[in-house]
Design a protein that fits this description.
alpha/beta, Rossmann fold, 4-stranded parallel beta sheet, 10% strand, DNA-binding, SSR_resolvase, DNA binding, DNA strand exchange activity, Recombinase_CS
Length: 203
Amino acid sequence: MGIYGYIRVSSTDQNEDRQIAAMREAGVAETNIYMDRQSGKDFDRPQYKIIVGRLEKGDLLYILSIDRLGRNYEEIQRQWRILTKEICADICVIDMPLLDTRNGKDLMGTFIADLVLQILSFVAESERSNIRKRQEQGIAMAKARGVRFGRPEARVSEEFPKIVRDWERKRISIDVALEKCGVSESTFYRRVREYRILQKNKH
């Protein structure tokens, strides 16, 4: 029987020490610990694919918590079925003893494990959704405060009104107007439209 451990951290600055310590304590050899530094939104991860390819019937896979496996509810369910039903390997979720397929292989044990898995994977995806909503709310609030995102707005010359008048009266060409303003042609025309609207509203 092979004993493996899978670790996932979401970014290069997240500390994986706790997961590694848990694998060592469980008796997983260093050579059998696989780690991805990647988001848990899907299972397109190189090290995870390797470990799935190595797992055989009767092998044991340790993960620290269900969210280390992933954060997509449906994908967690699908991968769990692949590992336990198709490959016939066992999984032990260290932080959740009820999710240890070595125990309770009877009908009731399987039912409890499946129920717990559904709850935990749903919670994992809900948390991911909540994080995304909080990010969207934070961006919306920042925009309401006047914070700008993306490329900085191109600044135009303080002499812009005079440049526009000269251009409209054909005293200067469009190329000269662009050079004086220091902006692209599309930005110049957009600013001209905004300027005209502003002037119209003043009268």
